[in-house]
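Figure S7 source data.
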Amino acid sequence: MSPTIRSNSPIADPIRARLPLDGKTVVLGVTGSIAAYKAADLASKLVQAGATVDVILTRSANEFIGKTTFQALTHRPVTTGLWDAQSELNIDHVALALRADCVIVAPATANTIAKLALGITDDPLTATVLATIAPVIVAPAMDAGMYESAATQRNVETLKRDGVRFAGPVEGRLASGLVGKGRLIDIETIVGLVRQAVGVRGDYEGRRVIVSAGGTRQPIDPVRFISNRSTGKMGYAIAEAARDRGADVLLVTASDLPSPAGIEVVRASTVEEMREAILPESANADLLVMAAAISDFTPTKIATEKIKKTMDRDGDGMSLELTKVEDFMPLAKGDRLVKVAFAAETNDLEANARDKIAPKGAAFVVANNVSEPGSGFGTDTNRVTFVDATGLSDALPLMSKLDVGHAILDRARPLLIKH
Ligand SMILES: Cc1cc2nc3c(=O)[nH]c(=O)nc-3n(C[C@H](O)[C@H](O)[C@H](O)COP(=O)(O)O)c2cc1C
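Tokens for the predicted flavin mononucleotide complex:
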């Protein structure tokens, strides 16, 4: 069940956003690491993403953080022992394993990793991991010496060979005060990897999807550029939706937003960098969605040194000469490639969008009136119209950008070459 987005903004109220983990059950195993307190945040983020979250605490985890916290966050009973009278595992010890769409162990201690590698099942968490056929993600957290020890490395390799996915650990400050590799990876990344894991059986499995995002920045001099108001949120939402449906995603971005988990990210600031990143990859892609706001004009000359105020000697201002930028989308070609263009317009939405279909070779254009409230740059919502060469014009209601991403993928899916 997806909760309604609540906001003070009147435009966001009627939206019923589809949450990325709606209808999915995630079993979260928490073990006895000092990082156990971070698992409360993870449980909360998974619930906010729409998942039903069943938490299992090892006995040591229970020493660090009690089950009341998780019960309150998940609104579900929390399992702490195989012989726990209140746990359904007392009746059916593999109940959670069967129900799970994904099992995530975060934080995972060296001890639990060792038990998992050997198939020891002396607690509800290890029994659940052994019994499940759902994807298993392990996010280790421990002292760097423990992580780098021969035994732990051997156990990690064994689990990887068995198909277990690892999230981190990362380098950073450890509880001991030392700096090293053993820190729990950030919670947003774990949520992204869970979304990817539950989508592996999605309708984009085996598909290569390229998405461009953000507004390109064309340099004027070493410290200045001309750009536009695009933040990249729309492109990121499409990339995440594709990842969640099982696609292998390349995100080419001019935005400063952080890289989403489970997505290959190439940072491209200028039109030229975008072109170089996208064209060679198009040959082997199934879908290219050009959500980036690519500059139409670029400074004719780039000053090699910072342009100074004093260069305007007579004080009557300076002019910047701009040259038209060649649109590279028509050049993106591949045997299987389906292309989707974006048209950000402030007037004559459909007519302007329709004019872009043929020259860009797009299967359809996602037109959006960026001057409408709740649409366009920087918002988390968008109102778009799909326009194609057959004369179709499908105006969608105001939606979350993630839902717009899914709607684009829904429309593109039947157009993909069968394989
Ligand atoms: C204060 C404290 C902090 C600990 N932190 C970690 C840790 O971050 N990672 C780890 O692998 N073990 C850590 N341990 C050791 C584990 O709690 C211990 O190996 C325990 O047996 C793990 O049990 P479990 O894997 O069943 O949760 C810590 C122990 C204590 C007392």
